[in-house]
Design a protein that fits this description.
Blueprint (H helix, E strand, L loop, with lengths): L13 E5 L9 H13 L5 E10 L3 E3 L28 H10 L6 E3 L7 H10 L7 E6 L4 H11 L7 E7 L19 H16 L2 H5 L1 H4 L15 H8 L8 E4 L2 E2 L2 E2 L2 E4 L1
Helix pairs in contact: 4-8
């Protein structure tokens, strides 16, 4: 893992992470990478996370302290008993609402909790659940709109808020031939991962935004794009979206790319 750093001016970074299915919690390799990454960061005052598993417009915020969403099936019953109760995040919700223009109103959901795209990685990164957390919905898949959304959220980083886009750099589940952690990597997954790694190294936001026409491995890598889209919220929240970020985690899990990014 590449050593993680924060911005020179003391801002919290913004992250794009692969969140994995609940069995990630039992994978010592990837969970160890996420835990080590979190330990390298300053402790956030609050966390705002955008997960691939909540697509809703207008922009919506989860209810602070609500029950978790168990939006998966076929796994060990123990995962459906897990909890992750975090402190009240009402103040963060109010702050986010003030950052949004009239053309992008914020809906405060009264009952929705964190889905597995949020609580699974956070249970590893911040297991004490001692940090206020809000989840924001993914209101669009248009890279330009998501970059603008991230830009509006950028001031939160100066206030100690860790902004996380949670997805999976490749997510072609229908095209996997086997479902085990050490599964062989399909060529479409390897090709997309290499393309994205090179574009991220260059800080080439235009290339990353043109994935539908330029990325090798499509549409197999993303038959639907909700796991890729959160990347643009992260890039928009960067101080300089065109600056190369730190690719802190790489490699594959069940044949899917777990490449993850930190931007200053």
């Amino acid at each position: 893992m590449t050593e993680a750093t924060t911005a020179a001016d003391g801002r919290m970074p913004a992250l794009y992470i692969g969140h994995g299915a609940p069995p990630l919690l039992d994978d010592p390799v990837w969970s160890g990478q996420l835990a080590a990454w979190a330990s390298d960061l300053p402790r956030p005052k609050a966390i705002l996370i955008v997960s691939a598993h909540w697509e809703s417009a207008p922009v919506s915020l989860s209810a602070s302290g609500a029950e978790l969403v168990y939006d998966f099936g076929g796994f060990d019953p123990k995962y459906y008993r897990m909890t992750y109760r975090t402190p009240d995040a009402t103040a963060l919700a109010g702050r986010i609402a003030k950052l949004m223009p009239d053309t992008e109103p914020v809906h405060q959901h009264t009952s929705r909790g964190l889905d597995h795209g949020a609580w699974v990685p956070l249970k590893i990164m911040y297991p004490d659940a001692g940090i206020p957390v809000l989840q924001m919905s993914l209101p669009t898949h248009d890279p330009e709109r998501l970059l603008r959304l991230g830009e509006r959220l950028r001031p939160l980083r100066d206030e100690g808020v860790l902004i996380i886009g949670s997805g999976f750099l490749t997510h072609g589940l229908p095209f996997l031939k086997e479902f085990r952690i050490e599964a062989a990597v399909p060529q479409w997954s390897a090709d997309f991962d290499q393309w994205a790694a090179e574009a991220l190294t260059r800080g080439d936001v235009d290339e990353l935004s043109s994935y539908l026409s330029k990325a090798p491995g499509m549409p197999y890598a993303h038959p639907t794009v909700e796991h890729y889209s959160p990347l643009f919220v992260t890039l928009g929240a960067a101080t300089d979206p065109g600056a190369p970020g730190l690719q802190v985690v790489d490699g594959f899990w069940m044949g899917l790319s777990k490449r993850s990014l930190q931007v200053a």
